[in-house]
Design brief:
Length: about 120
């Protein structure tokens, strides 16, 4: 990943409302959420949400699809993964203990609901 793309993506997340939107979409998984549902859950005005989603989409962090009259937004999981890898790819400098918290977080079962398989 080029540094400029990493900066664009990090900048898109460097605002409280956009970060909240992105985290909500991460929780929603591959099924995503309609714009109205995002606005309702986060108690954000639709025009404000639209601007936030545009910034996230321009950074490649969210995708959208039409479903009838609704637009469904999903987190761009592959792009999120690329950003995370970019941030930690040179980690450790020979000492795996330095990155242990990152590795532990990546293998936690937080995204595995009870009795279900890991998310992909």
């Amino acid at each position: 990943m080029e540094t400029s793309l990493a900066v664009l993506r990090l900048s898109a997340l460097a605002q409280a409302n956009r970060l909240a939107v992105f985290r909500l979409l991460i929780k929603a998984g591959k099924s995503g959420l309609a714009a109205g549902e995002i606005a309702r859950q986060l108690e954000v005005a639709p025009n404000t949400l639209s601007a936030q989603l545009t910034v996230l989409a321009n950074a490649g962090l969210v995708d959208s699809r039409r479903d009838g009259r609704s637009i469904i937004y999903t987190a761009a999981f592959a792009q999120m993964g690329e950003l995370i890898v970019y941030l930690v790819e040179d980690c450790c400098q020979g000492d795996p203990g330095i990155c242990a918290p990152v590795m532990d977080a990546s293998t936690r079962t937080a995204c595995i609901p009870s009795g279900k398989e890991a998310c992909s």
